[in-house]
Amino acid sequence: MDQFKTKCPARLALACIGPFNPAYLEYEGYENEDACRADVKAIRDRMNARMAMMGVAFVDFRAAYSNPDGSIIPSFSDNNVHIDPRHSEPVLAALQKAIGSRFSLRQPPWPPDSLAEKPCQSPWKRFRRAVRAKVKGWFFRVFPHFGKTHRLPPQGN
Questions:
Q1: Computed from CA positions of residues 119, 123, 124, 126, in that sequence, does the dihedral angle turn out positive or negative?
Q2: Rounded to two decimals, what is the model's pTM?
């Protein structure tokens, strides 16, 4: 990290590992759910403590989103494993505290646009596909029998 900081003028910050969603835990190998939750919380706390000691700004927003057992407060969840982006004020406050700069909050579009709904092709990809289609068209006009399968006549017994 020291080499990175000397070569790059950007400010570096690490974000904490957020709270877990208990719906996505695997309880296999634990005596009960509470033991699993306690282990997950201890692992996250240990990793966050180590990241906080790395000598860069550490953005810790866990307290605003966590229950006492370390799980995410359901109203702040996106019903998956992430924090709902509509509730990002605590992250912004923690970032401002860690870095000392002022940031403004921008409300995300809701519901989020899915890439699956609108296929996005870069102009370069459209160009490559058009060129490939032209080359194939030319090639098959010049060599009309190329690539066609020829069936052998049935063999008698």
A1: positive
A2: 0.61
